[in-house]
Design brief:
This is MFS transporter. The protein has 47 residues and is mainly β. It contains no helices and two strands. It has one domain. The mean pLDDT is 91.
Amino acid sequence: QRLPIQPNEVGGYGDILTQYGDVRIFPSHLSNLGGMDGFFISRLRVN
C-alpha cells in the first residue's frame, strides 16, 4: 500500500511531490543553491 508523503514532511517543498504523494526531485530543483541529484521516493506499507 502506498502512503502519500505530505508537504510538511519535505520541509514545505510541495512542488517536489507528485499527485500520488511520491517525491520526485530533478537536478534543476534548488538550482539557486547549486541544484541537487535526482531522486524518486515512495513510501510503502507492507501488510
